[in-house]
Amino acid sequence: MAENLDAEVIVVGGGPAGAATAWALARDGIDVLVLDRARFPRDKICAEYLSPEASRILADMGVLDEIERANPAHLAGMRVRAPNGLIADGEFASNHGFRGFRDRGLAMRRTILDEIVLRGARGVGARVLEETHVTDVHRNESRRVDGVMVRDADGRQRALRSRYVVGADGLRSVIGRRLGLTKTSRIWPRRIALVAHYHNVQGVGEMGEMHVDYDGYFGVVDVGGLMNVAVVVPLSRARKIADKTEFFEQWIAARPHLAERFQNAERITPVRATGPFASSTRRAWAPGAALVGDAADFFDPFTGEGIFAALRGGEILAPYIAEALFYQSDTDESRILAGYDRARKRQFGGKWKLERIVGTAIKYPWLLNNAAKVLSRRKDLADLLVGVAGDFIPPRLVLSPRFLFTLFISPAFRN
What pTM was estimated for this model as a whole? Predict the structure, then answer.
């Protein structure tokens, strides 16, 4: 490594995407420096759900046993309640012929999960600087990214230099914005999530729950003794909210099927907001830099894909960065990193399509009501959809015109 470099690769963000990328690179002997503005353990607004396939990556990183010792909740599947009141239950373990790495998903606080996963990256040699706020990219005389500008906890500003920068800094990525890579959708529904944690919510079992209404949706999941509770509403309505806590509690209280479950519940964390969602990238790289996780793409939290996509994205990106470290020309670099874009599309492209279909069904509730009529009677189809959401069934099986017609259109022609 050249003397004027602070690391071969700087990873901005120490969450699952950054930690997984750093782990894969450091394991192969590459000098990696992870920067995060927080000090761990730190909280993160999130659904806090991990699909069955996320456990495979955590096992590869050598941290799954430690995560299990932290007593996460184990989820058998998902329950969806449509605006018409019909309920569909889908389970990961079913007779559809597919098996995930595990038969259950996990759910746990990000205060616990992220620290363990980042410790896994440290364990194979990645260095970590906490309380370090990245404010911009640093470019060389040819405008290629060759590091980042940071502000330390004491307010000191400086440049840190590297061969590559990985933006794993989330939904409002500084790296993505500074490079002009991220864009916000003007077509798809944009939503805001309000999230808090509760004790003593009644009736929460081993299924994650999503309750869709005509003006938003509600989610609740056990995250290891506490309940992660979320209300997600359109951005147009969120802009009118004067008091997040009052709006959140009134939204629940106005729905009898939810209100009765919160009669003895105690909120133990503040109501916090995140979003708007529906952001993506033209491409997930620029000369000297690449994006991963939510920084590269995030559509909507309904399917709970963020943590798996972050871990898997880091797993995908690392070998391309490792190869690009030895590029001989700009053409070589473009060829290598364009391969990363193609690999992302192969891995996530089907899910991106499904997420947009689900997002449209939420926007137009009659579509979701139609689907609930089918899924409440056809558990095999509900299990198939949940398996796709669980990342172990190919999305193409639920994206065929025949399946979509059966789900959304054919119920309109039945009594």
Answer: 0.94
